Every structure is written in C-alpha cells, then in structure tokens.
C-alpha cells in the first residue's frame, strides 16, 4: 500500500491545513480499506477452522483451544473497530456540514433516546439543566456529546447507579459545558493520555470500544475553536469540561 502524494512540496512551500487533512483522510481511508480485506479473511477462516475442529473432535476439543479461538476472534473485532475509528477520525476534517445553530437541549434529548437501552440496562440517570444554543457542525457536536455520555455510562461503578449531570455556564466569552459522572474515575497521570488514539485504561471492560472516542472529541472541540479538559480521580467520578466560544444571537434555552 503506497500513500498517495498528490502534491509536490519540494519547492519549500508548506502544505495548507486543508491539504494535509485531505491527504490524511485519503491515507486513513486506504489503510482502513486495505487492512479490512485480509482481516475479514482471517476472521472467516479462523471461524471455519474452529468449526471444522469442533466437528472432528467434538468434546475432545480442549478448553485451551476454544480459548485461543475466542482470543483470535476478539482481537480481529478489536482491529476492525480500530480501523473503523481511524476512518471516522480522518473524516472529521473532510465530511463536515455547514455551521448551524444547534440547540444542545434538543441534541441531548436525541442522544438520550439513542442510548435508552444502555441507560435502562443499568438504571442510569441523566439530569440536564438549561443548555445553550451553539453555532457549529450539528453531526460533530452530536458525536462529541454522545461519546462523552456513552463513556459516563460505560465507565460507571458496577455496584452504583450511574448519575450523570450535564450543564452549561457562561464564562467570559465562552460557554463552559460539563458532563459529570460518579463513575470509576481516571488517575491524574492519565488525564492527557486518554485523549491519544487507541488509549484505553480498562481493557477488560466488556463493552469497551477502541479508545478513539476522546481523540475524536478533542478534534471536534478544536475544530470549533474550543478546549476540552477534565477533573477526575480514581473512584471519585469524572467531570469533562468543554469550552466553546459564544456566538452572537445565541441564548440559553
Ligand atoms: N467518564 C469516564 N470515566 C472513567 N474512565 C473514562 C471515562 N471516559 C474515558 N475513560 C477512560 O479513557 C479511555 C479512553 O476513552 P475513549 O472514549 O477514547 O475510548 P473507549 O470508550 O474505550 O472506546 P471508544 O470511545 O472508541 O468506543 C477509556 O477506555 C477509559 O479507560
Ligand atoms: Mg468512548
């Protein structure tokens, strides 16, 4: 697989941000597309192999062999979801919508609806106070809040009801939006690392994803000229803060 270089930068002229973004999107597309085909083959043939072995050996197929087979399947799934995440990330600069006024109260209601099964399964509670209207890319702002709320549900303490509080306040010329949970928390020395691609702290979490959600959040916030940060400690829950610039004609709803 050869990365496609469309432009000759040898003249010393630096590529623009959008040229780089396009190159990266194309590169990520090729990586994810080309890696998917062999992965699919590995998945299918390892499944076939284990089913043949089961036919042949029946109960004699040992625990260890079954464990190895599951291990292969799980790792293929992980690799596929990492590639999917990489593609999603690469498209943040290229698949955009024109900015519109996005009502965050309505957006959170939609996200709550999408996540209703997960919320019901663990009796999680979301309380949300008045939220502003933000000028931005509707799809990306939805992805941003979805990722953070999903994390707040996913990384709850197993024996406690997850309580998630979402709110916003005006600070100088910025909206400061917060998503607070009472979950397992994040050690202080990992507060930067969790925003890097594929970094996960709870690898044994059964529903855990590929570790790209927060990398995507950071990118979306930066594209909207804002910042993302957090306060968290092990067993003390987490608060994620997003600051976004206040635009004219936008009010609390
Ligand atoms: N609210 C939270 N409470 C505790 N830990 C968290 C929270 N949010 C994120 N983390 C930790 O940070 C890691 C990175 O989060 P991120 O959202 O990028 O990945 P993920 O949720 O594991 O996978 P993905 O979002 O790609 O499905 C998580 O794996 C988890 O260990
Ligand atoms: Mg996540």
Give a structural overview.
With 253 residues, the protein is α+β, with helices and mostly antiparallel strands. The chain has 2 domains: 17-90; 100-245, Histidine kinase-like ATPase, C-terminal domain (Heat Shock Protein 90, 2-Layer Sandwich), CATH 3.30.565.10. It is built from 6 helices and 7 strands. It has helices spanning 17-57, 63-90, 104-114, 116-121, 138-154, 213-223, and strands at residues 100-103, 125-128, 133-136, 163-171, 174-181, 227-232, 238-245. A 5-stranded mixed β-sheet has the order 2-4-5-7-6. Strand 6 and strand 7 (238-245) form a beta hairpin. Helix 1 (17-57) packs antiparallel against helix 2. The protein starts with 16 loop residues before the first helix and ends in an 8-residue tail after the last strand. The site of adenosine-5'-triphosphate has 25 residues, from helix 5 and helix 6.
CATH superfamily descriptor of the largest domain? Histidine kinase-like ATPase, C-terminal domain
How do the strands of the widest beta sheet line up side by side?
Answer: 2-4-5-7-6
**Shape category:** globular
The share of residues in extended strands comes to 15-25%
Low-confidence stretches: 248-253
> What do we call the CATH topology of the largest domain?
Heat Shock Protein 90
Structural class given helices, strands, pairing?
A: alpha+beta
CATH class descriptor of the largest domain: Alpha Beta
